[in-house]
Amino acid sequence: MSIARNELFSIGLKERDRLDKELGGGIPPGSIVLMEGDYGAGKSAISQRFTYGLCEEGHSVTLLSTELTVGSFLEQMHSLDYDMVDHMLDENVLFLHADIGDSKNTFSDTGGDDEDRMDLLKRLMEAEVMWESDVIIIDTFDAILRNDPKFEALVRENEERQAALEIISFFRDIISRGKVIVLTVDPTTLDEEAIGPFRSIADVFLELEMVEVGNDVRRQISVLRFAGMGEQVGDTIGYSVRSGTGIVIESRSVA
């Protein structure tokens, strides 16, 4: 059932691109958004577009990045013409950097003791300030899962689903307050048993792909699920990322 348009968290920038319209007018409150894509598919760029647009619409955002520091975040946003300085000074956005080393590592023996490694998921859930925003974006969530020693131990015992369900329970409590959680995931780095539960519970499930068309490589968002949509949501949204412009929605090609 559709909900009223004015209840959605608009991602704004209606005069600059059509992404808000393509997504039906915004993200329904009380949603978990799963954004999947291989390395380089554009998960961070779309997350940054969401962050800027939401702030422009007056929503508060927490962005947790496993790759960018605050300096590189501001530089990247500036390169896309998404000026976040005022939003940071006005405390519309809380940017956090999760320093967990090489985020592309898969589960392996790091050579260190588990006691010396951060219990990332526990610390994440106990960081109360990051969950106060209207929208919480974790980019990339799979890096946190893969570098959490307790989650890793459960994976080794083939108990990925149990570990995922404990995290999902926490997320459900957060979104019950009308908030939105956006998780970006590289599916090539996690077993199906680990990622499956998050796919199952996602209210909005977006798959980002790079598709070869002739000699060109085009980016697209496939909308696999969108519960509580406002207006009609497109099944496939073509887009590009341009320096000095940001996200540009490409016109649909006619077959």
Characterization of this structure:
- Helices cover 31% and strands 24% of the residues.
- By secondary structure, it is an alpha/beta fold.
- A hairpin with a 2-residue loop joins β6 (204-213) and β7.
- The longest helix is centred in the middle third of the chain and has 16 residues, at 160-175.
Search tags:
single chain, 255 residues, alpha/beta, nine-stranded mixed β-sheet, 9 strands, 24% strand, disordered N terminus
Topology:
Blueprint lengths: L18 H4 L8 E7 L5 H14 L4 E5 L4 H10 L5 H5 L3 E5 L22 H7 L8 E5 L1 H6 L2 H8 L3 H16 L4 E6 L6 H10 L2 E10 L2 E11 L9 E7 L3 E4 L6
Parallel strand pairs: 1-5, 1-6, 2-3, 2-4, 4-5
Antiparallel strand pairs: 6-7, 7-8, 8-9
Q: Describe the largest sheet.
A: 9 strands, mixed
The succession of helices and strands, N to C, reads HEHEHHEHEHHHEHEEEE
- As a whole number of angstroms, the C-alpha radius of gyration is 18 Å
Q: Outline, from the CA principal axes?
A: globular
* Termini Cα gap: 31 Å
Relative strand content: 15-25%
What's the mean pLDDT score? 87
Give helix % range. Answer: 25-40%
Question: What would a concise description of this structure say?
Answer:
It is built from nine helices and nine strands. α7 (149-156) packs across α8 and α8 packs parallel to α9 (192-201). It is α/β, with parallel strands linked by helices.
